[in-house]
């Protein structure tokens, strides 16, 4: 469970890191290289879409993680965990423009609502940490 959470956080930040070769790989590349097992491939692809964007089932266009949460394509609790991983690794990823933004800038641009801004900006929220596998 801890390993999956850490791998999802890596995928949600844009890549899986090969600790031996110090290479950054996509989820597909990590599975092909045997770095992660194929049994978690789909879960990691879902997390990776937090960076690459989700496909709207109606318009077939790219939508953000927050929009996917609002449409019920991804569970809110899972989406929050992926957004928190992005915040912890440099900021909210804009899947359309492929860059990172601070939480307050993403909120001002309308990437998510006031409630999500409060959740992501709350410094006293202890869920923003990740387990140390050691």
UniProtKB/TrEMBL annotation:
Organism expressing this protein natively: Chelydra serpentina
GO biological process: intermediate filament bundle assembly; wound healing
A GO CC term attached to the entry: cell projection
One Pfam family in the UniProt entry: Plectin
The protein's name: Plectin
Signal peptide: none
Keywords attached to this entry: Phosphoprotein, Repeat
Gene3D superfamilies, per database record: Plakin repeat (3.90.1290.10)
Highest taxon of the lineage: Eukaryota
Listed GO MF terms: keratin filament binding; structural molecule activity
């Amino acid at each position: 469970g801890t390993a999956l959470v850490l791998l999802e956080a890596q995928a949600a930040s844009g890549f899986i890191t090969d600790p031996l070769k110090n290479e950054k790989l996509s989820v597909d590349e990590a599975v092909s290289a045997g770095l992660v097992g194929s049994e978690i491939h789909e879960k990691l692809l879902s997390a990776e879409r937090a960076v690459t964007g989700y496909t709207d089932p109606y318009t077939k266009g790219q939508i953000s993680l927050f929009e996917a949460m609002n449409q019920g394509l991804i569970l809110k609790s899972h989406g929050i965990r992926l957004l928190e991983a992005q915040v912890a690794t440099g900021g909210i990823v804009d899947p359309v423009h492929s860059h990172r933004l601070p939480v307050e800038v993403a909120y001002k641009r309308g990437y998510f609502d006031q409630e999500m801004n409060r959740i992501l900006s709350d410094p006293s929220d202890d869920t923003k940490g990740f387990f140390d596998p050691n």
